[in-house]
Structure prediction request, 327 residues.
Amino acid sequence: MTMAPRSGKMTETRARAGTETMALLAAPLNTQILKALESGPLPLRSLRQAIGSPPQSTMRLYTRSLDELGVIERRSRREFPTSVDYAITRSGRGLLGVAGFFETWLAQAPDKPIELGTIAARNTIKSLSEGWSTTIIRALAGRAYSLTELDRLIPRVSYPSLERRLAALRIVGLVEGHRVDGGTTPHSATDWLRRAVAPAVAAIAWEQRFLPQSSQSVGRLDVEAAFLLAIPLTRLPKDVSGRCRLAVEVQRAATPDFAGVVVRVEEGKVVSCLPNLKGEVEGWASGSPRAWLNRLMGSPSQELDLGGEIALADAIVEALRRTPSKP
Prediction:
């Protein structure tokens, strides 16, 4: 399958959508607190015991942070002396839903299953988040690059930082290197990294719904990364053929714009996926980030605009919705 290289440098300096959620779930205590509260409110002492009795100062720091985000809440009991219970909120239950996507994905780790809430899970999610935020993953979603090429492509990140993050991605199995003649080592996305698109999309959807004021809006590089990672995983019926434009409305310099890819399918096989929306197509699917997120998360959303050969567009969108690594 033909995947397009970048035609220019990745110079966007904004943070990437979804990384705040990834940071929350990378911290083992956060997931342990949420799971302990899933069955009902608990006082701090009982909550602390339920997750292995970490230091009280640490517990207060984590519960305060989650409370400020609206993921959990404090509930005062009417008794003397006054006592407080901690309870999970609707936002917290939504975050647990995202955790389910990460649990499914981590269980598919190439060496052995990884349990969410462990040090191994923390290192893996942290590497994913840093690779996503620095646009390394966006680059490798399209094709293999050497470290030197990545340094030219992503000038806003220093060479030592790129080297460190690329090594971290390789250690946890999200990228792999291929030694070639001349001593260069192009790195490419593993299938496991491509399956991370499902939890990444879930993370973005949670942020957009529950942290709309503080989270980052969905940008062009987020859209391209998601499509370029996911398209190679799609499975389509053999009677599906044609060129289809997948477009997401994003803000660019305070002006609405579209980002996405054009996918060419021949008899059910994806033969190319290019982040260039120009050119003739037989079908298309376009909409806001919310419309796309709702559809990909399984909601019966009718907000997406499907046109041209609607059967072609609908088949590709549905194949994306069934991307592996969903709970």
